[in-house]
């Protein structure tokens, strides 16, 4: 099976093992990528039988290639309708920018719906992150993140209930928490420590986000601070790996400005 010439220097090279033989499913995958680029966003793929015959492979091999592209967010399956070319991934900056601002900058309508709003006693780790005492009350807000009405993530935020006793009275959970902190409570986030890793969602998380438990997720841990360096929030946010990528700006030691 030949590799499309315009893809020869792209993903297929990374897929060639040391012995030099390209796995058959991977060669199919590169051909599917070429077809995806040709068809464009939202187009439906020809039938499995047609494409398996075109690529001269078994349906099992073809399905493996398609499954990888679905997990990577290049294709999307719709029950009873077929397999479609997926839209481009959403891009969220690794910066102190709210989810609302990040989505609107891409022309996407952000949304959230509330799952949990409660008071909890802080365990030792949470207390250390928020610089409070273990057992002190914290506010826990858990929300599903939406992009143009599509469920794309799940966010849990923890704040000191003693520092923000009025928060739940003034905060609309369908809107930006950062805007509420700034406009209603006069708190501006200035610094944050953030860590990003890949995980699989728990069964509960997958159900809330509406995704396959096998879909890779991007997990963000963040502790945000105000101008005085005091912790304001601790966040645990899950984003669908097939729908999101993250971007940041880096500077070398010689950079100016």
UniProtKB/TrEMBL annotation:
Record's keyword annotation contains ATP-binding:
no
KW tRNA-binding (keyword) present:
no
Q: Which CDD domains match?
A: WHTH_GntR
Query: Keywords on this record?
Result: DNA-binding, Transcription, Transcription regulation
Name recorded for this polypeptide: HTH gntR-type domain-containing protein
Its Gene Ontology biological processes?
negative regulation of DNA-templated transcription
UniProt-listed InterPro entries: Bact_HTH_transcr_reg, Chorismate_lyase_/UTRA_dom_sf, Tscrpt_reg_HTH_GntR, UTRA, WH-like_DNA-bd_sf, WH_DNA-bd_sf
Residues in HTH gntR-type domain copies:
22-88
GO-annotated molecular function: DNA binding; DNA-binding transcription factor activity
Q: Which SUPFAM superfamilies does the record cross-reference, listed alphabetically?
A: Chorismate lyase-like, Winged helix' DNA-binding domain
